[in-house]
Amino acid sequence: MPAMRKSLNGATILIFSSLFLSACSNPASTTTPPPISSPAIIKVSPSPRNTRTPFPATVTPSGPLFTNTDENVRRILKTAPQTVGDFTLSCPVTVHSLIPADCSLIDKNGALYLIRIIFHTSAEAPYLLYQQSVKARPNGQIVALGDGSIVDASPNGFPGVLIYRNVDVSINPVTPSDKTPIPLTNERITAALKDVYEKILVPNAGK
What DSSP string describes 46-62? Predict the structure, then answer.
């Protein structure tokens, strides 16, 4: 029995020593964790400006700008897919470069959302819109999409904003009607904006 006790004590000492050395070699991190209330970031694709703060004073376009002419805007919208995310997309045939292109997003219940696409002459205006949108939506989720995007499915929220070079895309709250909208989620809004970005904007960038 004394030998067994000695062996047990030895094991106990070895275990304690191992734990002690492990704790010394792996000190607790001094990095302050982010607040629990910080909005999550939905990873979709890389982007240079998908941050909440701070914002640079000026913006450098991420690539060649879209040509801001009536003919080109009409050409781009003519290539728009019939669906984005789980919404039906309908854009006007007659649009002008200096006037926002007001398209419709229609969910499967028939509820309608206005999606506004604006082609600017520079990248500054979309960038300022993105800054304002981020500051106005403390509970919104920043999405790594385009040059900046934020979504907010909360009842009183402004569903989504996406900017890419000299274009901004905004999804407005549901239009009042007798149709009951399918409840919005950040994932549904993100899917719609992702399709707008990948199927409308990216293929026409710099054209």
Answer: --TT--SS---SS---S
In order, the DSSP letters of the chain are -HHHHHHHHHHHHHHHHHHHHHHHHSPPP-PPPPPTTSPPEE--S--TT--SS---SS---SSPPPP-SHHHHHHHHHT--SEETTEEEE--SS--TTS-EEEEEE-TT--EEEEEEEE-SSSHHHHHHHHHHHHH-TT-EEE--TTEEEE--STTS--EEEEETTEEEEEEEEPPSSS-PPPP-HHHHHHHHHHHIIIIIHHHTT-
Per-residue exposure over 67-91, b if at least 16 CB sit within 10 Å of its own CB, e if not:
bbeeeebbebbeebeeebbebbbeb
Domain ranges for the chain: 41-204
- Tens of pLDDT, residue by residue over 99-112, are 889 999 999 999 99
pLDDT digits (tens, 9 = 90+) for 119-164: 999 999 999 999 999 989 888 999 999 999 999 999 877 899 999 9
d(CA 153, CA 135): 16
pTM, two decimal places: 0.73
